Amino acid sequence: MKEKIEQILTEVKAFHAESKEALENFRIAYLSKKGVIAALFNDFKQVAPEMRKEMGMKLNELKNAVQEILEEQQKQFETTTDTKNDLDLSLPAGMMNGSRHPLSIVRNEINDIFKRLGFVIAEGPEIEDDFHVFSALNFPPDHPARDMQDTFFVTKSPDVVLRTHTSSVQVRVMEQGKLPIRIIAPGRVFRNEAISARAHCIFHQIEGLYIDKNVSFADLKQTLYHFVQEYFGEGTKVRFRPSYFPFTETSAEMDISCNICGGEGCNICKHTGWVEILGCGICDPNILKACNIDPEEYTGFAFGMGIERIAMLKYQINDLRMFFENDIRFLEQFEQA
Ligand code: DAH
């Protein structure tokens, strides 16, 4: 019996299943109730008592070897059959639809409103010189207003900076000397700010500039009022508060009645019923002069708003960092039909 078991053991160890079925047949041949091992256990009853220990060990060795081989070779088939079964090449590719970034959606919507009023898009460089970002906009050297915008410097003397606002595009367009001017300038701006839910070192603005003969504060108010009705809905209230910007005189900040609570008071508007959305004003004669436009003949208005701020109000997003993290779970919510 010992030789028989050893011979079977050698056979078993040499076994290699070509298919899952062959492996199943192997299992039946050896491990089923009527299989080789069951028969050997049956024979075992006749083994003389002094041989039992040795035979028992041999038999167990054989049984374990068969089980090991089964387990081992099973794995191989599991992986191959899995891929075969799970990969249905006729299925439509499970790709997600792309979506526009919420900032692009909001920028395009704002652009469209102003385009309908006759404004055209203007662009300027993100890396700018001091003249276009500050000096031409009436920020004298060492003027404290420069501290309002923490600037990233690329080089010092001559000062090359990352633009801190899109107002620099006003200067670029005025310099070209073609009047009248009616532009909006969307773009990315940079400020040396610690990143938090409310501030970021990169964000986006839309600048507006309208220069012509007889442009007044009434034109500014009506243009922005129209924008607010279009964007935030009919009946949204606006109010102007006096403010200060070096490049406008008169300067104002514009608030709208809170679009979340309708002016009742909520967390977003800090229970005031109003949210600030932009800065604006009548172009200071000095900036027209810096660009060779005669302030006696021409007047203008300008305004600037943060795209993130508008998007946060529109979509009720309370953390600015979401816009820059490119988290697919955030972005896929803006898929448009
Ligand atoms: N440039 C200003 C800022 O970044 C925003 C601004 C305010 C732009 C008033 C304007 C304006 O054109 O008239 O804070």
* Proportion of residues in extended strands: 15-25%
String of helices and strands: HHHHHEEHEEHEEHEEEHEHHH
Q: Which strand order do you get reading across the main beta sheet? A: 1-5-6-10-9-8-7
Cα(first) to Cα(last) distance is 77 Å
What is the C-alpha radius of gyration, as a whole number of Å?
39 Å
Helix content: 40-55%
Q: Supply the number of helical segments.
A: 12
Determine the mean pLDDT: 91
User: Which spans of ≥5 residues are poorly predicted at pLDDT below 50?
Assistant: none
| Net shape | rod-shaped
Question: What is the subunit arrangement here?
Answer: single chain
| Ligand list | 3,4-dihydroxyphenylalanine
- Derived structural class: alpha+beta
Mind describing the biggest β-sheet?
A: 7 strands, mixed
How many β strands by DSSP? 10
Task: Write a short abstract of this structure.
With 337 residues, this protein is α+β, with helices and mostly antiparallel strands. 41% of the residues lie in helices and 19% in strands.
